[in-house]
């Protein structure tokens, strides 16, 4: 029996992250090696021509799973029938731009995209917001899509999760696959809390294996928190390939499921778990099965973790208050 194609909409399709993402999606690395893909590429009018160039390259990949590519500058067309929406396109902060201007520019984009998802996407749509400020942009899209369940919206903190695993790999010398149950809490920003309290290294408690509290508090946590800034400083532009790779990991695990005896980090709508106010898009450790995520329940949170989770969550509350003030949620 032939498998029905899945429609994947990618916004910001001419940008750096999309360039790292689209070829891997077309190759079947996100939804499976037997699932045909219909790609919908959304760009602003000035970048449609560049998206056409990306589409020419995708054609030249001769990917057996790639059944169609549509390019548009109209969100209603882009999200028509979308099963997966990867919202990468966003307005970057330009010189002299105040924080309120950034929230306002992105608020307008994610309001429009939320409405287009609400009115046009498939009934099973899953949305990943990558464009920054990712949590609050996801909050805006979710609030502008009242007919779509809140559980279908998420923001990317898998890059932070993968960065945390990478630091533990460097410290302990194990393979990445031996590091499990890392958690990232809160906002995709420098206040995020990468947490090793429940993590394991080769099946043993990570904190016992590492046995270096000073490293955890004064090296591991700040390194993960500011890794994006360090990459911008070194590369001259923001992480693109690693963000694309993490985005693919995020959607793959959401759709196909997380591994036994492991979890991943996703920023999702809080149900009040762990004292995070309901309705905020905040990062949690989650497991996924049958296309649904579940926040890992009943983890013990010590005072050190509590303080750091609360700090990042209070930043999310401030962002929510700011976009409320601007009328986006
Ligand atoms: N959550 C995360 O872990 C990470 C998020 N990011 C964020 O991802 C976003 C994209 O990054 P890059 O691809 O490197 O940027 P980029 O500037 O190379 O590409 C962004 C693209 O989005 C397009 N765009 C802008 N407004 C749009 C709209 N209304 N509709 C459709 N397309 C639109 C632009 O024309 C541009 O082609 C940025 O906001 C960046 O800060 C980057 C790294 C990690
Ligand atoms: O600020 C940016 O665009 C980069 C970013 O989010 C990251 O690398 O985590």
Automatic annotation (TrEMBL):
Keywords, in A-Z order: NAD, Oxidoreductase, Tricarboxylic acid cycle
Active site, per annotation: 188 (proton acceptor)
One term of GO molecular function: L-malate dehydrogenase (NAD+) activity
Every Lactate/malate dehydrogenase N-terminal domain range: 7-146
GO annotation terms (biological process): malate metabolic process; tricarboxylic acid cycle
Top-level taxon in the UniProt lineage: Bacteria
Residues that bind NAD(+): 12-18, 106, 130-132
Ranges where the Lactate/malate dehydrogenase C-terminal domain occurs: 157-321
Catalytic activity from the UniProt record: (S)-malate + NAD(+) = oxaloacetate + NADH + H(+)
Binding site residues for substrate: 93, 99, 132, 163
E.C. no: 1.1.1.37
Database matches in InterPro entries: L-lactate/malate_DH, Lactate/malate_DH_C, Lactate/malate_DH_N, Lactate_DH/Glyco_Ohase_4_C, Malate_DH_AS, Malate_DH_type2, NAD(P)-bd_dom_sf
The protein's enzyme class: oxidoreductase
Functional description taken from the UniProt entry: Catalyzes the reversible oxidation of malate to oxaloacetate.
Family: Belongs to the LDH/MDH superfamily. MDH type 2 family.
Name of this protein: Malate dehydrogenase
Species this protein is from: Rhodococcus qingshengii
